[in-house]
Design the sequence.
């Protein structure tokens, strides 16, 4: 499929902060592509440059084969955008707002159709000030869809929402995916990236540090599973080096009285671990395992968590 | 998207609707736009608009002088002892203090730079001289010509209308544009194919829609409550007001083009408005200022509006006669709109 978005060596700095430090991206038509990273990683700056809202210091951006410098109006007709912290005019109703946005586009569904798409029918005449956070985000998504876009940019679409509202929004995005349109979204929630995206670029400090399908990324770290246990005061006496030597263990680290091991095969590592602990006479209070997630990929690449800052 | 295509006009219409809704759904804004000029007109009309001729207050400590002045209609005399009389004069409660000396001569104490003081002196002296036997050889009679349009309230109503259009335009546009910018509404809009010219035009059209109420209410009130004349053609008045609204809206767009905070735009609006409150002949004639600054004063938009409104209402001037003022306003519209479009900070 033709490339929907192509970014080459993108750079942008604000005063003494380097926001984007050489990012390359290629998003194919019809895929859902994610930018995953902590706050301040440069995701919003990157996506706003792609949306034509910010000018880069250097680098090349091609959106749907067109460039911002020469084809801004044509590109805007084909894009749908949801900004981070979208604010819409409080005094207008949902229907009035969608009519306003719809009037900017040459073609697209009617406001009523889009309201039905995002399940806000009962609230059509409600003022925006009276909507909940989840309803406002659904309306923001509706505003992005009202021009029948080929390419949808979503900047942190579910930040600040409660779990139920978040799931509703994921459902809507998945519906849009099924229509075969391209989506580029940014997020710092790994479940969101894992669930929605065909491919994910992990971004940190303005650079892409890993790129691929979520399953691929997890597998690339090498360890499929994580084992965590809490040992209380005894944790300080645990010999991490000897734990690391257990067959199948990729790495071992301790933090705040709990120890985390990256392991490849649970059925070999767990008995070995428990035997080791018994030999050392170390008692543990909790034991948990989970399959590796993108969060773990991020931790293993940077040593920090996605939501630490 | 071209502002003038059919789709472009529909989109402009939607933008104007949004402006109107945002305004009318904010009750305080509507109240101030409509009732503030009315309140101001009423207060000033009551203070300055008395239809009867006010008697000038005079004080004296001589009973003979008091007796003579008692029958003089233009003067209201009070008999006080010396210290109280002197205080009254110094505090502005009296326009004149008449001393009678033992030798029969009279001394008039008053502020000769104050027209009331000069008038009080003439009336008091005339009464005193006639009581002492002065005869005026030439027979004379008074004929009063009460010309509506020459009272203070007639002067001030057009000035307040102009002030109202300016104030509402600058504050209304200043606040709503900067607020939209601050809350990233403008940013969201420019991410769409919306025409930026249409966005700015929607503010101009919105203010014109309110004009009917903004101008109509104080003028109708002035006419009904104070008999303020409106001598020019109604069509001309509408055109003058439309051009005034466009001029101040364009200035408002320019002021609001860059600031990111409400504090910053408030400072700018005050900086622009306050000199015009003083210089543009709202409350008193701008002719009082030295000749050297008159060209500058005439170039100010509020001066042009006030002059045009006054000439139209009080003297029935036609649009041709008002060409200089209308040209001034048109220049302000064009220059400020183009600058605003160029300088506007969209996010």
Sequence:
């Amino acid at each position: 499929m033709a490339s929907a978005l192509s970014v080459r060596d993108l750079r942008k700095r604000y005063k003494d902060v380097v926001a984007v430090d050489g990012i390359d991206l290629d998003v194919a038509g019809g895929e859902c592509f994610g930018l995953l990273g902590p706050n301040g990683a440069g995701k919003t700056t990157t996506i706003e440059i792609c949306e034509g809202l910010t000018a880069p210091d250097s680098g090349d951006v091609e959106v749907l084969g067109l460039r911002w410098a020469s084809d801004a109006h044509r590109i805007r007709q084909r894009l749908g955008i949801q900004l981070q912290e979208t604010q819409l005019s409080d005094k207008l109703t949902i229907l009035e707002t969608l009519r306003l946005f719809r009037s900017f586009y040459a073609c697209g569904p009617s406001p009523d159709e889009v309201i039905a798409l995002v399940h806000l029918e009962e609230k059509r005449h409600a003022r925006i000030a009276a909507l909940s956070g989840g309803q406002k985000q659904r309306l923001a998504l509706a505003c992005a869809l009202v021009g029948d876009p080929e390419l949808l940019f979503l900047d942190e679409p579910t930040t600040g929402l409660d779990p139920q509202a978040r799931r509703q929004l994921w459902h809507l995005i998945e519906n849009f995916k099924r229509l075969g349109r391209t989506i580029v979204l940014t997020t710092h929630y790994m479940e969101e990236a894992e669930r929605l995206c065909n491919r994910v670029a992990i971004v940190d400090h303005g650079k892409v540090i890993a790129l691929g399908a979520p399953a691929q990324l997890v597998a690339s770290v090498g360890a499929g599973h994580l084992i965590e246990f809490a040992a209380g005061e005894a944790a300080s006496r645990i010999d991490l080096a000897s734990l690391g030597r257990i067959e199948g263990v990729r790495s071992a680290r301790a933090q705040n009285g709990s120890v985390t091991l990256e392991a490849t095969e649970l059925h070999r590592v767990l008995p070995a671990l428990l035997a080791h602990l018994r030999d050392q006479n170390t008692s543990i209070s909790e034991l948990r395992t989970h399959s590796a997630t993108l969060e773990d990929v991020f931790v293993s690449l940077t040593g920090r968590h996605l939501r630490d800052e | 998207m071209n502002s003038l295509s059919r789709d472009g006009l529909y989109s402009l219409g939607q933008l104007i609707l949004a402006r109107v809704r945002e305004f009318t759904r904010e009750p305080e804004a509507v109240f101030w736009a409509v009732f503030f000029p009315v309140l101001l007109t009423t207060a000033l009309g009551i203070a300055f608009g008395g239809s009867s001729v006010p008697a000038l207050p005079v004080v004296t400590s001589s009973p003979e002088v008091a007796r003579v002045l008692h029958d003089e209609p233009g003067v209201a005399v009070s008999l006080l002892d010396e210290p109280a009389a002197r205080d009254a004069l110094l505090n502005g409660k009296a326009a004149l203090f008449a001393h009678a000396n033992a030798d029969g001569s009279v001394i008039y104490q008053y502020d000769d730079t104050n027209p009331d003081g000069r008038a009080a002196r003439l009336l008091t002296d005339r009464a005193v001289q006639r009581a002492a036997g002065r005869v005026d050889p030439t027979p004379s009679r008074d004929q009063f010509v009460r010309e509506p349009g020459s009272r203070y309230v007639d002067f001030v109503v057009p000035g307040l209308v102009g002030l109202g259009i300016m104030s509402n335009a600058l504050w209304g546009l200043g606040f709503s544009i900067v607020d939209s910018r601050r809350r990233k509404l403008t940013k969201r809009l420019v991410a769409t194919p919306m025409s930026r010219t249409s966005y700015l035009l929607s503010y101009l059209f919105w203010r014109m829609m309110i004009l009917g109420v903004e101008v109509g209410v104080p003028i109708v009130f002035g006419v009904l409550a104070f008999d303020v004349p409106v001598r020019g053609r109604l069509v001309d008045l509408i055109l003058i007001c439309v051009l005034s609204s466009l001029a101040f809206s364009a200035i408002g767009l320019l002021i609001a083009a860059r600031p990111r905070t409400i504090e910053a735009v408030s400072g700018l609006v005050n900086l622009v408005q306050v000199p015009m409150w003083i210089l543009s002949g709202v409350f008193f004639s701008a002719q009082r200022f030295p000749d050297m600054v008159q060209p500058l004063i005439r170039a100010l938009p509020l001066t042009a509006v006030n002059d045009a409104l006054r000439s139209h209402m009080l003297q029935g001037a036609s649009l041709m006669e008002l060409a200089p003022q209308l040209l001034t306003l048109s220049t302000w519209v064009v220059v400020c709109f183009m600058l605003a479009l160029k300088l506007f900070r969209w996010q």
Residues 222-291 of chain A form a domain with the Alpha-Beta Plaits fold (CATH 3.30.70.980). Chain A has two domains: 3-213, 222-291.
